[in-house]
Write a structure and sequence with these properties.
Elements lengths: L1 H24 L11 H20 L5 H22 L7 H25 L5
């Protein structure tokens, strides 16, 4: 049972990573669905990445995980610009990425505080 839960957590993390990498490194930017929809997408994508990372790597110290994700947030935005000539580095997108990581950290901390350790 525990192995199945671990596999599900890893699968969720893998899906988040795959979706994030597809969104970041595809040649054309996503269409604007509404004003600032791109920023909302960045926030949600990195929030999901943060939460799925926390679930997938429960034994990894938060002192390692959260700074790593926080550094990856602007780095991936910069790397996107380097690898895809049609994409432009955006400070606002990098900040939205970082805000998503902070949001995931806040949710993770709230769950941990409210329900005790419970695997988070």
């Amino acid at each position: 049972m525990l192995q199945t839960l671990y596999n599900l957590r890893l699968a969720a993390f893998g899906c988040c990573v795959a979706a994030l990498l597809y969104g970041i490194f595809r040649a054309a930017p996503p269409p604007d669905l509404f004003d600032q929809s791109d920023k909302v997408g960045h926030l949600l994508a990195f929030g999901a990445l943060g939460l799925s990372s926390r679930l997938a790597f429960l034994r990894l110290s938060g002192w390692v995980l959260w700074p790593l994700l926080f550094v990856l947030a602007p780095l991936l935005e910069w790397l996107q610009h380097q690898l895809q000539p049609l994409r432009v580095y955006s400070v606002e997108d990098a900040l939205a990425n970082m805000a998503g990581v902070v949001l995931a950290l806040a949710v993770s901390s709230l769950v941990r505080w409210r329900f005790g350790h419970c695997g988070w």
